[in-house]
Amino acid sequence: xxxSAFRYALPSTLRDAIDIRARFEDSVILAGGQxxxxxxxxxxxxxxxxxxxxxxxxxxxxRVADGVVRIGAMARQRVVEQNDEVAAANPLIRETLxxxxxxxxxxxxxxxxxxxxxxxxxxxxxxxxxxxxAITVCGPSGRRTIAAEDFFEFIFTTAMEPDxxxxxxxxxxxxxxxxxxxxxxxxxxxxxxxxxxxVTLKLGADRRIDRVRLGACGIATTPALLTECERFLTGKSPxxxxxxxxxxLARDAVTVSDDSAxxxxxxxxxxxxxxxxxxxTAMTRTDGA
Amino acid sequence: MSTRQxxxxxxxxxxxxxxxxxxxYVDDIPLEGALHGVFARSNVAHAKITRLDVSRAAALPxxxxxxxxxxxxxxxMKMPLLIPHPCITHGRTQYPLARDxxxxxxxxxAFVVAVDRYVAEDAALLIDVEYETLPVEIDxxxxxxPGAPLVHADVPGNIAxxxxxxxxxxxxxxxxxxxxxxxxxxCERSTxxxxxxxxTAARWDExxxxxxxxxxxQAPIGLRGALASLFDLDEHxxxxxxxDVGGGFGPKIHFPYANEVLVPLAAREFGRPVKWIxxxxxxxxxxxxxxxxxxxxxxxxxRDGIVLGLRDRFLHDTGAxxxxxxxxxxxxSCQIAGPYRIPNIxxxxxxxxxxxxxxxxxxGCGRPQANFAIERAMDQLADExxxxxxxxxxxxxxxxxxxxxxxxxxxxxxxxPVTHDSGEYEQALRALMDALDVDAFKADxxxxxxxxxxxxxxxxxxxxxxxxxxxxxGHVRVHPITGKVFVNTGLTTQGQGHATVFAQxxxxxxxxxxxxxxxxxxxxxxxxxxxxxxxxxxxxxxxxAVHKAAVLARKQLIDAAANMLEANPDDIExxxxxxxxxxxxxxxxxxxxxxxxxxxxxxAFNKAAERATQFAPAARSDGPPxxxxxxxxxxxxxxxxxxxxxxxxxxxxxxxxxxxxxYGIKIHRYxxxxxxxxxxxxxxxxxxxxxxxxxxxxxxxxxxxxxDEDGALRNASFMDFLIPYATEIPHVEMIHQETPSPxxxxxxxxxxxxxxxxxxxxxxxxxxxxLRPLEIAPIRKVPLxxxxxxxxxxxxxxxK
Lengths: 289, 800
Description:
The complex is a heterodimer of chains A (289) and B (800). With 289 residues, chain A is of the alpha+beta class. Chain A folds into three domains: 7-52, Uridine Diphospho-n-acetylenolpyruvylglucosamine Reductase, domain 2 (2-Layer Sandwich); 58-172, 2-Layer Sandwich (Uridine Diphospho-n-acetylenolpyruvylglucosamine Reductase, domain 3); 179-284, 2-Layer Sandwich (Enolase-like, domain 1), CATH 3.30.390.50. Helix content of chain A is 34%, strand content 25%. Chain A is built from twelve helices and 14 strands. In chain A, helix 10 (227-233) packs antiparallel against helix 11 (240-250) and helix 11 packs antiparallel against helix 12 (264-284). Chain B is an alpha+beta fold. Chain B has three domains: 31-134 and 192-286, Aldehyde Oxidoreductase, domain 3 (Alpha-Beta Complex); 293-468 and 643-799, 2-Layer Sandwich (Aldehyde Oxidoreductase, domain 4), CATH 3.30.365.10; 469-598 and 633-640, Aldehyde oxidase/xanthine dehydrogenase, molybdopterin binding domain (Aldehyde Oxidoreductase, domain 4). Helix content of chain B is 27%, strand content 24%. In chain B, 56% of the residues are buried. At the A-B interface, helix 12 of A face helix 3 and helix 20 of B.
């Protein structure tokens, strides 16, 4: 479990990092290393060049302004999790991060690394997608911002060009009175889950559901938006029966097939339960609930 | 110091060093200029090797040599079958490196020696191998059926060994019975997953010609014997050291692994130290496995639930080879009747070859499987007869007055009939019932069900034959300069706390502080009589030997002190590192002074030594300085050989809740009542049990090595093969019972494996109890994943 030989680059500016990336086709980006390093040690990846972004202070920030939480790609997950300003603006972010692996992994793992890795079982891509967040990337021809829904294309596959780096994730703040919940079920604490569900819920003045966001991880080849459930719920009066029905409706979103430890029907069962349970939790956190 | 240390919760002597990261494991041994080895391993299960070309690998800069079997000379031989038994009709062991055929994924084909690990791994990938694959059958049941593809062409039916043992008259018992229960249970293949994988380093001393091997083994003396034999050396020319070892759990008792042969060989050839440190990927396909057994068990009972007879026929998966003999299967077969009287037992097993990693004992060694079989069967018998699960067990227990209770003709791993030496089984069961408040639980269970919650109670009663012979030795010596006591055994320690418990035993005899007793083990250069660390035997066998040696040393101290103090030996007391006349109020002499005075000296190398030199007044004597038959210093060695195994036991119970949304299991309470005889250190006993329970939880919920139908191991990493984290282990409530063993001077029984044994049954019976309202089929398999439970419930729903 030793990696094959590689060249190591430690740029100190984003510009340099992009230049190096452009020069070496067979290069990889090292952010927090929580997925890349094991992959290299298993020799599943044998890159010629490893570009380590740890000196890029310009990507290491967390800002809350104008109703948006902006997270630099190199911000450590643990730092974001512990940022009270972030939690105040959008408590779903902290709740989601608490489900990402273990503290020691979050100490090293970066937000940008997790998003760029695009593992559909991971929590952060689902958070971004559910929140209709946006991801900014930067390449030789400049910056562009991609809606999270368009960013994740397939397992480990994103809309980034090979010469682009992920630089920022933007997540809208919750509105006053908006409820939230993230929960997942894993066989062991901190593992990738059988399924995980993110929810936000806002009631209108008539106590009907004004806006609901619902997304899930672990069930498809990308982070899944449960748009049918969202449509179904919008405009209705919340009730346990309604939430259970939404859960049932969510089952069709599971597209991954059986694996040796988890059958598809079981995953659907867990997803349905989580959707109902998380809607209930989010409901209790809405204004005046 | 007059407080007895035996039985006290003494802090561990080894913890300060280990917790501060100052442990020294094989990879930490500083060996200047060491070369690094890496094995190339088969990635097919069963095949003829049609081409093996290492030239590209050997040509890589930094590579010194790539060994194949052709380079091994006289070492190109089958490795020993360590525990021969007459029933092994087709014993097969492997060569250090595969010759023309491979038998499992992971078998070593070549050994690369290079300047560092990176280069060695690069080179291993450059080895060109071509195979002609052969058909395989991975499924244990099918592998034992006629017509199955053979693992070894000359082993018909893939049967390595078959043993039938009958105690009593089973046919008549079954003929007389009112009721017969029969079930089939299945435990999956697992791995011990020690934190430190296997590791070997070796150095040949050019001057002395001696070979030193540092190895993460549980059996340095045995390994030394094997290496001396293989390399044709005098035993004194081979020193095997097991330094700190990061967990053993059984697989490290097996030897010699290929690394234990190749690393010394390469060190000799290159005149440089060589080390090989197994990585986790390799450990999954190299270090031996255990656990896969399928039992077909039947109980013949009266309508009152008295079990008259037991028939068990089981298949034991031994992997591609059987280097450790029938140990696992034999141990399983001997605990199949558990704590129950059952006077008529027929147990038959077949050890079946499958094209997989070889199998040797892993903590529990067949007992978890046997416990799962008998206890699942007892639950079913209770169900079928309409009896309470606790009551049916109570009715069948061996009673206190029936000990020693022998099962004639059921021969245990020590070659002797199973003889339970002592116990209070019913008392243990009652303690569990009280702790769990079984009646109150039934009401809670009903109330919870009305809210749609599923609570269940499970239990399992186990027995464990521990403390196997043949023998161990203990050596005790008082250091003349410091007065500290030096203790040695032939064992190794992988975290069990030997440096504390043996020190406690010695402390009580010699009146020294526990921290002033220095225990050194695992080094054949220091002490080399003994067997090894396995079978929950260290405390029983070595503890007793150390005790006997300490008793001898105590007598020497007292006699010498009496002489020095001109007192009657009966009046001498040993305490606080001194000997003095009891009640005299005088300081007396220190152990260092006694030890010094007991060693007639010529040279006064320190102040204390002056008193022992020839012309000192105290040393003057008429006869020779050492009387005939006397020896210098305070030093004693003694041995303990148990008459037979001593039987520990216990009963675990749990209250669990199944979440119908996730099928996750929450363990509300986990209670363990156990009896390992007199406890040397309850804190260490509790640690052993908690660790065992954690590994048992692994077996109950997670651990299954998944071979695909071609024989590839699909989950050979900690991403895919799950073991419980600390977060998955519930608090274990412990209730100690101490029924001394009559077999050894300290009255102790082993506890190392105990915690592991009953857990799968506890969980299975608790979940079955919880989901009874949903009418799920009885649970007959572990591990139990949430997805599997979901399928049971779904199937039950479909049946309705």
